[in-house]
Design brief:
This protein is α/β, with parallel strands linked by helices. It is built from seven helices and five strands.
């Protein structure tokens, strides 16, 4: 009868916000065109349900996700029931696109980068979402992504940036949920309200 002193390792969850679709210099006419384009790519990847595009647009109209970060960004998303595979769609824009500002009635920001989290369980992925928002607040990091030459370059740069702030597969010994949570500091109530509705 042997006793294994090693504490059990919990199954590492599917990497939240793993890169699903990455597009550099996406050229769109407006917000609706942008959401339609990204949703179409995600449908092609089998990452979302057929009703995802409409749910995405409806949610953005009701709960705008434009962030007044140093370089304006947005994190549009739909509710978890419309997501098949957790991940992230990321796009830099050929020209700024106006988005409603999160937490305001009539504010607007001219967005240059969109990160669309695909969440299947808002509770499990809230920490990852908050870390993503922290990354988007880093002007140097966002500028690095905007400087990507093409899709492949953007994917490579984004993978490095995301690996620094988000847990990934095979890294269970590199982090713990408690330590990761402490690193974030206080939760942002605005961010949680604007994005946490994903679980509503």
């Amino acid at each position: 009868m042997t006793t294994d002193p090693t504490p059990p390792v919990e199954d590492d969850p599917a990497p939240p916000l793993a890169l699903t679709v990455v597009i550099a210099h996406l050229d769109v006419s407006d917000r609706e065109d942008l959401l339609r384009s990204l949703a179409g790519h995600l449908l092609d990847e089998g990452a979302v349900t057929v009703d995802f595009p409409e749910a995405l647009r409806d949610r953005e109209r009701t709960y705008p996700t434009g962030l007044p970060t140093p370089i304006p960004t947005a994190i549009p998303h739909a509710d978890p029931q419309h997501v098949v595979i957790p991940g992230l769609a990321l796009a830099t824009l050929a020209r700024p696109v106006p988005f409603g500002e999160m937490g305001t009635r009539d504010g607007s920001v001219d967005v240059r980068l969109v990160a669309m989290p695909l969440l299947t369980d808002a509770g499990e992925h809230l920490e990852a979402l908050q870390r993503l928002m922290g990354l988007l607040s880093d002007e140097a990091a966002v500028q690095d992504l905007l400087d990507a030459r093409d899709d492949a370059d953007l994917r490579a740069r984004a993978a490095v940036r995301l690996a620094a702030v988000l847990p990934g597969p095979g890294r269970a010994d590199d982090h713990s949920p408690r330590a990761a949570g402490e690193a974030d500091g206080p939760r942002s109530t605005d961010g949680a309200d604007g994005t946490g509705g994903a679980g509503a």
